[in-house]
Design goal:
The protein contains 19 helices and 22 strands. The protein is α/β, with parallel strands linked by helices.
Amino acid sequence: MNAKQTIEAGKAILGIEFGSTRIKAVLIDEQNKPIAQGSFEWENQLVDGLWTYSIDIIWKGLQDCYADLRQDVKKQYDCEIEQLAAIGFSAMMHGYMAFNADQQILVPFRTWRNTNTGKAAAELSELFNYNIPLRWSISHLYECILEGNEHVKDIKFLTTLAGYVHWQLTGQFVLGVGDASGMIPVDPATKNYDAEMVDKFNKILASKGLPYTLENILPKVLVAGENAGQLTAEGAKCLDPSGHLKAGVPVCPPEGDAGTGMVATNAVKQRTGNVSAGTSSFSMIVLEKPLSKPYEMIDMVTTPDGSLVAMVHCNNCTSDINAWVGLFKEYQQLLGIKVDMNELYGKLFNKALEGDTDCGGLISYNYVSGEPVTGLAEGRPMFVRSASDKFNLANFMRAHLYGAIGVLKIGNDILLKEEKIKVDRITGHGGYFKTPGVGQRMLAAALNSPISVMETAGEGGAWGIALLAGYLINKNGKSLADYLEDVVFAGNTGVSVAPTAEDVAGFEKYIENYKQCLPIEQAAVDNKQ
């Protein structure tokens, strides 16, 4: 069937992801290829010192995004979406959405960006002997309890953004295991909330006289492929107010953006990983066994089928490079030369390949904001050199490309060197890899591992959740890892770049220099407003 016939026959599958700046819908065919898309741009708001999105904008955004998809289908294929084979919803993870018995939100949605949970996260990390990040839902709940917030006594439901949307459209209060693992740790053996930690937290709830346990208020955990309900008549009307979309569509377990990123890069199998490198960066490596001890700079989440994942999250990546390229653009304009930004990035990135493997002693700190991994609460972008360093364009560009992933390397060195984690394949995606072969080579040197880049990696999380919806109805007894490997990617592992010994040694020298000079960055934070 062609795309039009697939849509008219009700065989198309829909994935919708709520990202930080955009809600994106992707419609895929039976071969898992995107055939139409829609989007809605949005931004979080700072209200009373906390980052939030209003309930109204969540629903307006979802409806406008779906309407944009309908328009794309109409324009491309001159038909309507009446029926779908399956749907999936995903969203940014963590945060705090607490509801009362009437399913009314008690306080505005607190997103993952909020860092007001320091006391709670520290106390819980000690109590659980497990790294509990600031942005996790359990940190938000405990912070509200510590602060004596009035609303906590009325909580009947606590969920994430993806869980909330799924619940309202299907009537099922459930959550995919990957997203659940960003609320409170999940036990990979049971693929459910860690029973010991839940028990410890329930004792806190009882000591505060609160009328519930965590089991009462958290969503039921589901793994990929499990039945998570169907689109209700009210849900169909809410998603598509035009009334074309029929109810009864199977909906897969709602997931977080980390999980959909793993799916979109075929990185859910143990000993695989992926690196997302754009405005910020993070790496996720699927583990064979738990780490020997907790590390503050490593977050533990799970794949959508429940395997343990070690995640290193960095606040900064390409913003400082973009600022420098903007400077070169101004220089070209000054000379009266027409600027093609793709050509400019390509030329500058490729020039970096001519630089010394240790960047000739030059260092770049890309800290537009702070970096918890290196202990910086705030950041100041900074370029550092000595008079005797080899200062030329190739080394300058290479230092900035290294600097963009320097913090990521420091976090991953714990996994790869101290914990001796074995990785067979790491897939890169995001703007850092846009110029073919360059970002790949730098990351291969940083992690001393082959790095693959796939054409499909740019499709992102909305495609990832569409694939999970496809898995729900087409799994045929296969594990998620085998389904992705055999059915979706069918052997396509992308283009791989292996590290050279010289590049690896050069990056090691660079990172030692980088770590040694971190007090310079701290001094800039202390003295430069």
